[in-house]
Design brief:
Helix content: 25-40%
Radius of gyration: 15 Å
Mean pLDDT: 94
Number of strands: 6
Order of helices and strands: HEHEHEHEHEEHHH
Strand order of the largest sheet: 2-1-3-4-6-5
Number of helices: 8
Distance between the termini: 27 Å
């Protein structure tokens, strides 16, 4: 599904950037000018660009515990059982992973496997959803072993950073609300 606006990029970037207390080292998996543009709205960060094709190898080569945030624009990473482990290894103890996800409503088998892959390595694994201006709905996951996406949001950063078109603190919290049938379907896989 192709989004026609920057909603997906705003949500992939600003959800983790406005949860982490002091993000400095950010890795972006999957070439995306839009993600890089969204990251420029945050000051004093170092960005490491990683191609989807060699993400596992690059993450393995990164010094352990060196990243604050990983943003992955490619849900295919979750098909590799090594991804969760190498991402967790590259992230520091307060690190956050934000990655595109399969549809929790339509691709339940894929989404279950993705949640299992992340759940093996992270204490908190929560899906979030959002619609673009054309009502195309997308999902992503936030995975962390320290920060909770609704309890730890930095309201000042979320609401006072210039240049957001879609994202704000209310949208951030609301994006983690899931219907009962989704919660029941993924009971034990969603870790909050």
């Amino acid at each position: 599904m192709q989004n026609t606006d920057n909603t997906i990029y705003e949500m992939l970037v600003h959800i983790p950037m406005c949860i982490h207390a002091e993000p400095k080292q950010v890795a972006v998996i999957g070439e995306s000018k839009e993600i890089l543009d969204e990251l420029t709205k945050h000051k004093e960060i170092n960005i490491l660009k990683i191609s989807s094709d060699d993400a596992i190898a690059k993450l393995t080569d990164i010094q352990e515990n060196s990243l604050d945030i990983i943003i992955a624009n490619d849900k295919k990473m979750l098909n590799d059982p090594l991804f969760g482990g190498v991402a967790k290894r590259a992230l520091n103890s307060k690190g956050i992973l934000s990655i595109l996800a399969s549809s929790l409503a339509k691709d339940m088998s894929d989404a279950s496997q993705e949640l299992k892959t992340l759940g093996e390595h992270f204490r908190i694994v929560m899906p979030y959803g959002f619609a673009d201006s054309n009502n195309n709905y997308s999902y992503a996951y936030l995975a962390s072993s320290f920060y909770h996406p609704t309890a730890d949001i930095n309201l000042q950063r979320a609401d006072l950073t210039d240049g957001f078109n879609y994202y704000n603190s209310d949208i951030a919290v609301a994006s983690f609300v899931m219907p009962t049938y989704i919660r029941k379907q993924y009971l034990g896989l969603i870790k909050s």
